[in-house]
């Protein structure tokens, strides 16, 4: 349930109180956090950080010399939902807020409860231990204070060890990191020592704050003078790299063509061969041994269509499954589309009659069994044959 997000409902009385506190924070938040943070701060513009980042990247593209630099753009996964309340409390005390003020803020944060609706029934409420509510006037400012923890770690650990920062001109100011709401850009030397230290900082920040870096959306950019060996070493240490590029770009390009035309099998094999060569090559035209063990997952449908394979696709949207439902005269199971897997199964069994229950159960089992056979044994089966197996199992049960 990686995409689970709670709905935050705040009553009017709380919003009035939170807005009054937020107005007080707005006037002093700029004095409590580093200049690298510009979002939601009075007198600062997030566009200033954008312009500065573009200037630094432009400089790195043209940089010459022996020392290579890298730029790491980090994306925090579920930034608001993962913030630990204990961390919020400690960071405010560390910054210097009065204990009474901190207690008042924490009462606003912690007086929340959640209810879960399962199959239309409301379960007992429970109390969380982390998370900032979307729509709460206090949440943006509290998230800035949490970001100050990462900013302080970067200043203490990176400056002098990982990088003294980069500057666009000789007399210009140095910048080691920039913040953009729930994302961050870090500048440093492209070395294995720097990459390891950077990972240690992220690990320490995660253990304290609960924040998790989404490496699928994170990007590493190198200066022009960084060697191929240093680039490969840093990418392997930080994670992501070629795998993220392959999934996000190379495997996505043929999707648009495959949605309109049935590509020949020979062409599909050539595309897979091209991706494999790109993954394992060491340089331009050079194939090397990858000394780092890795497993590349493939979430595409096993039957050759371009869609990602999830539970709904397996049981309802796959072409083979669609043909099986048609042969079983159960095409109506595809009518209700905008639902989760659990909601769809509940709807199917409520709408079906007694005679269809056995067929539905055997069909779901046979679809999953045939999918696993194709995955692990390479045995493919058509939708018509799948429907015949379901009918045979149903007849054997009734006998």
Tell me the helix content. 40-55%
Compute the number of helices.
15
Q: What's the total number of strands?
A: 9
Shape summary:
flat
Oligomer: single chain
User: Strand content of the residues, in percent?
Assistant: 5-15%
> Can you tell me the residue ranges where pLDDT is under 50 for at least 5 consecutive residues?
none
Order of helices and strands: HHEHHEEHEEHEEHHHHEEHHHHH
Query: Rg, please?
Result: 27 Å
* Average pLDDT metric: 78
What distance lies between the first and last C-alpha atoms, to the nearest angstrom? 41 Å
| Main sheet properties | 5 strands, antiparallel
Label the structural class.
alpha+beta
Overview in brief:
The protein is of the alpha+beta class. About 50% of the residues lie in helices and about 10% in strands. It contains 15 helices and nine strands.
What does this 3D model show about the protein?
It is a single chain. The mean pLDDT is 78. This protein is of the alpha+beta class and 399 residues long. The protein is built from 15 helices and nine strands. Strands 1, 4, 5, 6 and 7 form a five-stranded antiparallel sheet that branches. It starts with 11 loop residues before the first helix and ends with a helix. The relative contact order is 0.09. It holds the Pfam family RVT_1. This is Reverse transcriptase domain-containing protein. InterPro entries: DNA/RNA_pol_sf, Retrotransposon-Effector_Assoc, RT_dom. Residues 1-250 form the Reverse transcriptase domain.
């Amino acid at each position: 349930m990686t995409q689970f997000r709670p709905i935050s409902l705040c009553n009017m009385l709380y919003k009035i109180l939170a807005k009054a506190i937020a107005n007080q924070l707005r006037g002093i938040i700029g004095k409590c956090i580093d200049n690298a943070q510009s979002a939601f701060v009075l007198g600062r513009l997030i566009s200033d950080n954008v312009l500065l980042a573009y200037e630094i990247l432009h400089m790195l593209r043209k940089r010459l010399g022996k020392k290579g630099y890298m730029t790491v753009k980090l994306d925090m996964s579920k930034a608001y939902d993962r913030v630990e309340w204990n961390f919020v409390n400690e960071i405010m005390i560390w910054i210097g807020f009065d204990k009474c003020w901190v207690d008042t803020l924490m009462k606003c944060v912690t007086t929340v409860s959640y209810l879960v609706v399962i199959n239309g029934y409301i379960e007992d409420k429970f109390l969380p231990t982390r998370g900032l509510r979307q729509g709460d006037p206090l949440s943006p400012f509290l998230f800035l204070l949490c970001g100050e923890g990462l900013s302080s770690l970067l200043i203490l650990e990176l400056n002098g060890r990982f990088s003294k920062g980069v500057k666009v001109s000789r007399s210009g100011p140095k910048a080691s990191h920039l913040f953009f709401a729930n994302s961050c850009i870090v500048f440093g030397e492209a070395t294995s020592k720097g990459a390891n230290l950077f990972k240690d900082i992220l690990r320490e920040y995660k253990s304290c704050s609960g924040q998790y870096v989404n490496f699928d959306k994170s990007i590493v950019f190198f200066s022009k003078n960084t060697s191929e060996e240093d680039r490969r070493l840093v990418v392997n240490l930080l994670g992501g790299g070629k795998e993220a590029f392959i999934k996000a770009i190379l495997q996505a390009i043929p999707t648009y063509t495959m949605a309109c035309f049935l590509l020949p099998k020979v062409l599909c094999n050539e595309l897979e061969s091209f991706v494999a060569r790109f993954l394992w090559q060491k340089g331009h035209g050079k194939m090397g041994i990858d000394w780092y063990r890795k497993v590349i997952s493939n979430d595409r449908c096993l039957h050759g269509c371009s869609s990602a394979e999830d539970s709904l696709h397996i049981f309802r949207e796959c072409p083979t499954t669609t043909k099986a439902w048609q042969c079983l005269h159960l095409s109506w199971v595809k009518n209700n589309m905008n639902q989760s897997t659990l909601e769809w199964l509940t709807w199917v069994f409520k709408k079906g009659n007694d005679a269809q229950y056995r067929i539905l159960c055997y069909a779901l089992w046979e679809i999953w069994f045939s999918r696993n056979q194709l995955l692990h044994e390479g045995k493919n089966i058509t939708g018509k044959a799948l429907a015949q197996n379901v009918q045979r199992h149903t007849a054997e049960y009734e006998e």
